[in-house]
């Protein structure tokens, strides 16, 4: 359901020099598949997630999600597409501090087409074990609870693809597995494809498919002295 | 979850800054409201006084001074006209054109309030504020044969604390330190408030008004044999506002038919060498526009500048918060909000702050006016309630929204231009 083809991305440095970050010949993920993406710091994992989510645009290449090539979409359409079809779990949760847990989930629905579904939002929060915390703001939630709200928010619009960027990095060890299980089970239940970025080999080991970015990102491979291949 | 709610939450998150911004806007709007209401009060005070009659007939001279003296009981009289001219109006050559004519005599005061000599028709025949009849809160009007009877306007009664049956002595002249006339007048009635200058005057029977002069002149002439004193007295006599057989002015209601009778009669009187006739409504309108009208625009301009300054405060407040909110905006964008959506959220925030400030300002402005209403009533005779609105205040709402949109534009553009990827990576 996801296909990246000849995707390249560079950044302009403050001194004006060009820093190549991504050069991916091919990267595929099937519907409902769960993939873990590993790689050393700075190899472009977050940039790759941003490109898949449509937050950033590649300099060249195609990013197809089902029948849509998001690189051809104007920005507003990409934003709407992301709202409706892609869920994103951030490393630092990125909940909006002024809104309750329920409102954070509703906000995600607000930016998609259609009216926010309060019943679904409540069910999602119940699913992640926060039925008693719906009216609490992020500052009144524990770290683990905040990440669970983030997971519920990411699933709010029944996405086809869930992107999770180091979802357990800021969660204490006792809750890391809980979060991971939650994400995996929720995606499996709703047949959502999952790409999860992590540094942790323990986390990576729990997934059927592990991809090293250095192995299919030619830039990272060159820097690491490895030979790249398609993923 | 509406965008209004999102904007409202942003305001709540920055509570102190938002409250200060709202208060600042509120003070500016309160100032605008106060200027508008006070303008309305002054307008009403000016124009109400001259309603109820069509012409004022008085001595030749300044029209404005005639009106100020005869309608508002201010300033010095222009001069006097012969009593015979008044008789021409009621039973002479002008009688066919005149429905009611009420004489006024000026020249005395009591505890700072003008004492006006007039006839019972002043309150029996004349109306005020167009078509309202005078009513007495206590007592009754004086009768023609009650030479030394008087009635008080509502404010004059309250301030002098005179009651029905009590007596008072008029003081000669308008300034301080005038001679107190020996003859006293008895209060027979206290008028209900009218919201006109009548509230602030004392009215006595014109016959008694003249009688106190004649009696004292006669007594002085008898006692005074000294030629030098006589000359001095003669000179002082000329300071008196009222001479026997002279009156200060006449309030005239002309017959309604034929149309244009007011101007016809005015022209006829103005062509005489003795008197002039003025249409009080026109003179008052000119006086108002010439003096107050321009001042009102200046005051309003200053008040509007205050509101604009408060609007700039909104812009600064929101713009300064943008650097802290880049991350928050980036999250919304990452969740799928479009650039225009986050821009609208910022604009809505600006509008909410302006409207809340406007609401606070309306309450403050009207509250302040209401708190000062006893003073306003005392000074102008106009009763002002808290819900006294000027129609121009309706312009405040769209005006504030427009101002908010303008001042919110810059921060909204900053939100629009947020680099999502960079801001997501940056630590909040």
Topology, pairings included?
The complex is a heterodimer of chains A (231) and B (428).
Chain A lengths: L1 E11 L5 E12 L4 E5 L6 H9 L6 E6 L2 E2 L5 H11 E4 L11 H10 L7 H10 L15 H12 L6 E5 L7 H17 L3 E5 L3 H4 L4 E4 H4 L1 H7 L7
Chain B lengths: L2 H11 L1 H35 L5 E5 L3 H8 L10 E2 H9 L6 E13 L2 E6 L2 H4 L2 E2 L3 E2 L2 E4 L9 E4 L1 H7 L6 E6 L7 E12 L9 E5 H18 L3 H11 L8 E2 L1 E6 L6 H10 L4 E4 L1 H55 L4 H33 L1 H8 L15 H21 L3 H6 L3
Parallel strand pairs in B: 4-11, 8-10
Antiparallel strand pairs in B: 1-13, 1-14, 2-12, 3-4, 3-9, 3-13, 5-6, 7-10, 8-11, 9-10
Helix pairs in contact in B: 1-11, 2-10, 2-11, 10-11, 10-13, 11-13
What labels describe this entry?
heterodimer; A: Rossmann fold; 9 helices; B: two-stranded antiparallel sheet; elongated
Short description:
Chain A is of the alpha/beta class and 231 residues long.
- The strand line-up of the biggest sheet of chain B is 3-4-11-8-10-9
Unreliable residue stretches of chain A = none
Report Rg of chain A.
18 Å
CATH superfamily of chain A: P-loop containing nucleotide triphosphate hydrolases
Mind explaining what this structure looks like?
- The complex is a heterodimer of chains A (231) and B (428).
- Chain A is an alpha/beta fold.
- Chain A has a single domain (2-224), classed as P-loop containing nucleotide triphosphate hydrolases (Rossmann fold, 3-Layer(aba) Sandwich), CATH 3.40.50.
- Helices cover 36% and strands 23% of the residues of chain A.
- Chain A has helices at residues 45-53, 75-85, 101-110, 118-127, 143-154, 173-189, 201-204, 213-216, 218-224, and strands at 2-12, 18-29, 34-38, 60-65, 68-69, 86-89, 161-165, 193-197, 209-212.
- Chain A has a 5-stranded parallel sheet with strand order 6-7-8-3-9, with helices on both faces.
- In chain A, strand 7 (161-165), helix 6 and strand 8 form a beta-alpha-beta unit.
- The longest helix of chain A has 17 residues, at 173-189.
- Chain A is globular and about 50 Å long.
- The mean pLDDT of chain A is 88.
- Chain B is of the alpha+beta class and 428 residues long.
- Chain B has 2 domains: 3-46 and 288-425, no CATH class; 55-278, no CATH class.
- Chain B has a 6-stranded mixed barrel with strand order 3-4-11-8-10-9. A two-stranded antiparallel ribbon of chain B has the order 2-12.
- In chain B, helix 10 runs parallel beside helix 13 (396-416).
- Chain B is elongated, with a radius of gyration of 31 Å.
- The two termini of chain B are 24 Å apart.
- Chain A binds chain B through residues 46-47, 50, 53, 55-56, 75-76, 79-80, 82-84, 88, 90, 92, 94-99, 103, 106-112, 116, 153, and chain B through 1, 3, 6, 9-10, 12-13, 327-328, 331-341, 420-421, 424-425, 427-428.
